TrEMBL record:
Annotated organism of origin: freshwater metagenome
Stored Pfam families: Mur_ligase_C, Mur_ligase_M
Protein name, as recorded: UDP-MurNAc-pentapeptide synthetase
UniProt keywords, alphabetically: ATP-binding, Cell cycle, Cell division, Cell shape, Cell wall biogenesis/degradation, Cytoplasm, Ligase, Nucleotide-binding, Peptidoglycan synthesis
InterPro entries: Mur-like_cat_sf, Mur_ligase_C, Mur_ligase_C_dom_sf, Mur_ligase_cen, MurCDEF_CellWall_CoF430Synth, MurE/MurF_N, UDP-N-AcMur_synth
GO molecular function: ATP binding; UDP-N-acetylmuramoyl-tripeptide-D-alanyl-D-alanine ligase activity
Lineage: unclassified sequences, metagenomes, ecological metagenomes
């Protein structure tokens, strides 16, 4: 969305310094390294102080910088506000209010948000002018940037929403005003911050409470928390899953040798037969079914939805299957990890045809009081699957996983870091073998993928 500097200052209750009030700003960025010419720059304070990068952003062509203080040596163009992050939210809320005819779909949940968001976007974009978050721009700065980047005439805006603390979804919904809310699953991701499963249900319920009475909630009938969530929605609810009484019902799900699911779907708008996804793993079937329900409700045809779902590709580091020059299959699911996602990755990996299967695993962070038990449960599960070796990047959090897998009879090796994991497994890997990489983002297992895929033999 294009706004003038004067409009930005008025909306954000800011003061213009060294800027032409009639100058146009096209969207916002918060990383000076990828600053777009003509867009604004938001000086966020999140580990680093964005005010230190205002000069770099302006040199790259930023039309204005949203700041809380005037950086040394910078005389404009600036809009000085009390809190740049909150100001960005107010600007995005204004932009959303100008899109009165657009349908806004919010996607939240403990796992599967990004895949479901991408599947919804693919399902609606053949019929509607659509826009969605890049990667996982799902928080208090990524979501406003996504809204402000929506092209003029956007008919469907698909927004992934992250939830780490109570109140997160209420804040994001206040900005985005969604018509449709999709909750993929209630698990234990971020349970340490949210006070366990009850807190997770509460924060996800914030999305349902925010929906208008004439909106729609799309819920996973396979999730045990769905009945509780149902009671929090004033909007009508569509349930999606394998159950015979699901409003949108899945049948005939299967995986091929490349782990791609095929399934059929029975819906109030007609059936989808033998849809094959490019996303890997049977857990993606429910995500795709929820996406299909959303797209069909909005008015997309069954044909367009089936084609859209079949064309959706995996996001970076999420169940990405590649092959090294040495002929080793690398299943890179290293972007993040929760118990549900770890379970899905392991069970899917165990079905990948391979000579030997080696799972390189690390800690799942932010599980709070559930951490030890959930790591141990995942270790026990891994030991029961057709996996030849489990390599665990050592930490206090991951040790229960390693110990439980070892106690259950699995071959387990402990290593200090991702580079050590690569050094260990590369000694014995042969053409036709397979490697899974799965842990929370901070563990950095994508480095193992880089080393494997960059190896010459």
């Amino acid at each position: 969305m294009n706004l003038t500097v004067a409009e930005i200052a008025e909306i954000s209750e800011g003061m213009i310094v060294g800027a032409e009030s009639r100058a146009t700003v096209s969207g916002f960025d918060f990383d000076s390294r990828v600053q777009r010419s003509g867009a604004g720059f938001v000086a966020l304070i999140d580990g680093r102080d964005g005010h230190d990068y205002v000069s770099a952003a302006l040199e790259r062509g930023a039309a204005v910088a949203l700041v809380s203080r005037i950086p040394e040596g910078v005389d404009g163009p600036l809009v000085v506000v009390e809190d740049p992050l909150r100001a960005l939210g107010r600007i995005a809320k204004f932009a959303r209010s100008s899109m009165a005819d657009a349908s806004v779909v919010a996607v939240a949940g403990s796992a599967g948000k990004t895949s479901t968001k991408d599947l919804i976007f693919s399902g609606v974009s053949r019929r509607f002018k659509s826009h969605a978050n890049s990667a996982s721009f799902n928080n208090e700065f990524g979501l406003p940037v996504t809204i402000l980047d929506a092209p003029v005439g956007t008919e469907v805006l698909v927004l992934e929403m992250g939830e780490r603390f109570l109140g997160d979804l209420s804040y994001l919904c206040d900005i985005a005003a969604p018509n449709i809310g999709v909750i993929t699953h209630v698990g234990l991701a971020h349970s340490g911050n949210l006070g366990g499963r009850a807190g997770i249900i509460d924060v996800l319920g914030e999305l349902l409470v925010a929906l208008p009475n004439d909106g729609l909630a799309v819920l996973n009938s396979e999730c045990s928390a769905t009945q509780t969530l149902l009671e929090r929605s004033a909007a009508p609810v569509l349930t999606v899953g394998y159950a015979l009484d699901a409003d949108v019902r899945i049948s005939n799900a299967s995986l091929d040798e490349q782990l791609r699911p095929t399934f059929s779907l029975h819906t109030p708008w007609g059936n989808l037969d033998s849809v094959r996804l490019q996303l890997l793993g049977e857990h993606q079937v429910v995500n795709a079914a929820m996406a299909a329900a959303t797209a069909l409700y909005l008015g997309a045809s069954t044909e367009d939805v089936a084609l859209g779902l079949s064309s959706a590709l995996a996001a970076h580091w999420r169940m990405e299957l590649s092959h090294s020059p040495a002929g080793v299959a690398v299943l890179n699911d290293s972007y993040n990890a929760s118990p549900k996602a770890m379970e899905a990755a392991l069970t899917t990996f165990a079905r990948l045809p391979a000579g030997r299967r080696v799972a390189v695993l690390g800690a799942m962070h932010e599980l709070g009081d559930e951490s030890r038990a959930e790591h141990a449960r995942i270790g026990e599960l891994a030991a029961t699957l057709d996996i030849d070796e489990i390599v665990v990047v050592e930490s206090e959090l991951s040790e229960p996983l390693a110990a439980a897998a070892e106690a259950s009879g699995a071959l387990v090796a402990r290593v200090a870091n991702p580079e050590a994991a690569f050094a260990l497994i590369s000694e014995s890997l042969k053409s036709g073998d397979a490697v899974l990489l799965k842990a929370s983002r901070v563990v950095g297992l994508e480095r193992v993928a880089d080393l494997l895929l960059g190896a010459a033999g």
